[in-house]
């Protein structure tokens, strides 16, 4: 579904990613692990089109690397960004409507929203509340549901467990597992190696802008060796 070759990402004079390759097959959950500053968010920004990059980014067979952000979204890229960035003053429902902004099939938006309220009942209960009044975990659920409102081909998740209590983190990983079982293609960026590996098919480890290790998730066991690598760098 997504194929990246020789991707370099720059922020002004700084090159954050130095030429990486990665692939996400249709229906797979692939995790990009790595310490702070490794270039994980930069990689996602290059895919969505918000960071400058060179190299190939192919989505469902088409090179999208030169397209502007909105065109990539229309072709099926959606992200739940780091820090969630929900619209705090808008209601839960309005946030979901915003997620569907680029869609042509307006008539199906209402039923999709009802579907997400069934999947995340707590969001349904709070549909008319300003999203800023939700807890961190609820805001993360909303950010994921909002991204999925565009009916993307691939869902990018940037550190969905960041800042959440362990129990809430477990719930968010359960949700990601459910989405995978529903056939949604996922590229997950995480620092929580153990939880991410458990639901992933394939893992890439990014260090200083380069892939230092990759392989099927089973190869990394329970992820504890990777956890040491990732946290040891801090
Ligand atoms: P984190 O978990 O902290 O978000 P990360 O792996 O996602 O880490 P990036 O945010 O991609 O890493 O950052 C990679 C490198 O690029 C870092 O050295 C960072 O300082 C730099 N960088 C990221 N964004 C910018 C920016 N907008 N301007 C300048 N440098 C940046």
UniProtKB/TrEMBL annotation:
GO terms for biological process: L-amino acid transport. Keywords: Amino-acid transport, ATP-binding, Nucleotide-binding, Transport. Residues 2-233 form the ABC transporter domain. InterPro entries: AAA+_ATPase, ABC_transporter-like_ATP-bd, ABC_transporter-like_CS, BCAA_Transport_ATP-bd_LivF, P-loop_NTPase. GO terms for molecular function: ATP binding; ATP hydrolysis activity; branched-chain amino acid transmembrane transporter activity. The keyword Transferase does not apply. PANTHER family: BRANCHED-CHAIN AMINO ACID TRANSPORT SYSTEM,ATP-BINDING PROTEIN, HIGH-AFFINITY BRANCHED-CHAIN AMINO ACID TRANSPORT ATP-BINDING PROTEIN LIVF. Belongs to the ABC transporter superfamily. This is Amino acid/amide ABC transporter ATP-binding protein 2 (HAAT family).
């Amino acid at each position: 579904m997504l194929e990246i070759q020789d991707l370099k990402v720059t922020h002004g004079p700084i090159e954050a990613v130095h030429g990486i390759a990665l692939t996400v097959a249709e229906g797979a959950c692939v995790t990009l692990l790595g310490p702070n500053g490794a270039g994980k968010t930069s990689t996602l920004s290059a895919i969505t089109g918000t960071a400058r990059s060179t190299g190939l980014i192919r989505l469902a067979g088409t090179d999208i690397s030169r397209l502007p952000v909105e065109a990539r979204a229309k072709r099926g890229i959606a992200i739940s960004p780091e820090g969630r960035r929900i619209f705090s003053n808008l209601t839960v429902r309005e946030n979901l409507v915003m997620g569907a902004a680029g869609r042509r099939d307006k008539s199906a938006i209402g039923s999709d929203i009802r579907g997400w309220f069934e999947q995340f009942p707590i969001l349904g209960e709070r549909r008319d509340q300003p999203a800023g009044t939700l807890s961190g975990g609820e805001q993360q659920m909303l950010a994921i549901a909002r991204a999925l409102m565009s009916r993307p081909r691939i869902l990018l998740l940037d550190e969905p467990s960041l800042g959440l209590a362990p129990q809430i983190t477990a719930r968010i990983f359960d949700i990601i597992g459910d989405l995978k079982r529903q056939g949604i293609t996922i590229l997950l960026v995480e620092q929580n190696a153990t939880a991410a590996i458990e639901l992933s098919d394939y893992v890439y480890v990014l260090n200083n802008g380069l892939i230092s290790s990759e392989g099927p998730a089973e190869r990394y066991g329970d992820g504890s060796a990777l956890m040491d690598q990732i946290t040891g760098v801090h």
